[in-house]
Amino acid sequence: MAAPIAVAIDAPDIETAARWASSVAPHVSTVKVGLELYLRYGPEVITTMRGANRVALFLDLKLHDIPATVAGAARAVARLKPSILTVHAAGGRDMIRAAVEAAPDTRIAAVTVLTSLEDAALEEVGLRGPASDAARRLAVLAVESGARALVCSPHEAASLRAEVGPDITLITPGVRPQGAEKGDQARVATPEEALAAGADLLVIGRPITRAADPGAAAASIAGALRRAEATSA
Ligand SMILES: O=c1ccn([C@@H]2O[C@H](COP(=O)(O)O)[C@@H](O)[C@H]2O)c(=O)[nH]1
């Protein structure tokens, strides 16, 4: 079975994106298209990502606007049938609900607190911290507003799982295999730690896509997850 990994295909061009997607697709459940590719290529990139790859498509647009605008945007991309579409939980109840209603066949995932933010950075943008508290408040609000998935760091996965129960999909970026560079990520954990904390889907980008052989990097992380699961069973 493919590992519960969404590879962040943050590529500068569609040819590179297609190459990365086809090399990781045999090993992972999902590929994630974000702002860089979607703003450059639009729906064409979704068709290319699907190609011959049997993977779910995660559209990470992090919508954040007034409810009517988000509803329109969610409706516009719903026809592409992504399995997951992100919105920012900080957009509020009405905005989240508008996205959920506009894209009934897509799982709306609410981003709680970006994994690049440290506690100090939260204060600067006016969010009452620490990050774990802010993530919990936003998670509850998002689920009450109809979101069926949450994006959080692996650090918050266990407490959010306790808060929202087993039916909500927890998606964790900020995942770094032992020894990998953190880059601009702040709240990070290893793939095994994220899974043990209760994450359903691990978002991993650069540790896979910047490897000399992205397919081999994805296969290696998938294998480590399988071994960790077997040990904990
Ligand atoms: O809080 C968030 C929400 C989304 N992301 C996205 O995940 C990937 C992470 O890529 P890495 O290369 O593994 O850092 C990227 O596409 C982000 O836009 C996030 O990192 N944090």
How would you explain this protein's 3D organization?
The chain has helices at 14-24, 35-41, 43-50, 67-78, 93-102, 119-124, 131-144, 154-164, 191-196, 206-209, 214-232, and strands spanning 3-8, 28-33, 56-63, 84-88, 107-111, 149-151, 169-172, 201-204. It is an alpha/beta fold. It has one domain (3-232): TIM Barrel. Strands 1-2-3-4-5-6-7-8 form an eight-stranded parallel beta barrel, surrounded by seven helices. It starts with a strand and ends with a helix. The mean pLDDT is 97. Bound molecules: ligand LLZGTKA7. Residues 8, 10, 34, 60, 111, 114-115, 151, 173-174, 183, 185, 203-206 line the site of the ligand O=c1ccn([C@@H]2O[C@H](COP(=O)(O)O)[C@@H](O)[C@H]2O)c(=O)[nH]1.
Briefly note the CATH topology name.
TIM Barrel
Residues in helices, as a percent range: 40-55%
Number of helices: 11
- For the record, the count of structural domains works out to 1
CATH class: Alpha Beta
- Give the strand order of the largest sheet, numbering strands 1, 2, ... along the chain: 1-2-3-4-5-6-7-8
Estimate the global geometry from the Cα principal axes: globular
Question: What oligomerization state is this entry in?
Answer: single chain
Cofactors, ions, other ligands: the ligand O=c1ccn([C@@H]2O[C@H](COP(=O)(O)O)[C@@H](O)[C@H]2O)c(=O)[nH]1
Based on helices, strands and strand pairing, what is the structural class?
alpha/beta
Measure the end-to-end span.
16 Å
Which residue ranges are poorly predicted, with pLDDT under 50 across at least 5 consecutive positions? none
* Topology as a string of helices (H) and strands (E): EHEHHEHEHEHHEHEHEHH
The overall average pLDDT, rounded, is 97
The total of beta strands comes to 8
Which strand-content bin applies to the residues?
Answer: 15-25%
- Rg over C-alpha atoms, rounded to the nearest angstrom: 17 Å
